[in-house]
Task: inverse folding
């Protein structure tokens, strides 16, 4: 089935999920690099909050790279993502400067509830070694 990975980006109470058919073994490293690429938009140098829209666009563009025109490979979803064959997802919150690990989804009628694992500050997350949590 592939080596799946899911990345989430939180903004204004919603989460944009990016699903990848591959890259699960590089999930951590890929997101670390995407966060670093978006750093000019989440760093608060002028007393304003993070520019979530631009930071998310930069991160998603970095992750997808040159694959934008392909029919398969990546999918986008808002606020929920089915839990098929990947062990967890990472969710970035630009304003809080955190990355939350979602360990699983739990059925809740027609909805899905996430069960969270560790929450990392950006500093902590960016210092992790690729040993997937």
Result:
């Amino acid at each position: 089935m592939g080596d799946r990975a899911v990345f989430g980006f939180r903004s204004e109470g919603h989460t944009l999920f990016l699903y990848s058919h591959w890259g699960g073994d590089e999930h951590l490293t890929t997101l670390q690099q995407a966060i670093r690429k978006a750093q000019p938009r989440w760093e608060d140098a002028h007393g304003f909050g993070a520019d979530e829209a631009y930071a998310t666009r930069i991160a998603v563009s970095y992750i997808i790279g040159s694959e934008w025109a392909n029919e398969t490979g990546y999918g986008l979803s808002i606020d929920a993502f089915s839990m098929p064959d990947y062990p967890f997802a990472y969710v970035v919150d630009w304003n809080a400067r955190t990355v939350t690990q979602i360990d699983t989804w739990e059925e809740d009628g027609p909805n899905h509830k996430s069960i969270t694992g560790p929450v990392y500050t950006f500093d902590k997350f960016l210092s992790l070694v690729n040993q997937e949590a």
User: Anything to note?
Assistant: DSSP finds four helices and six strands in the chain. The mean pLDDT is 83. The two ends are 21 Å apart (CA to CA). Strands lie at 5-11, 14-20, 74-78, 89-93, 98-108, 111-121.
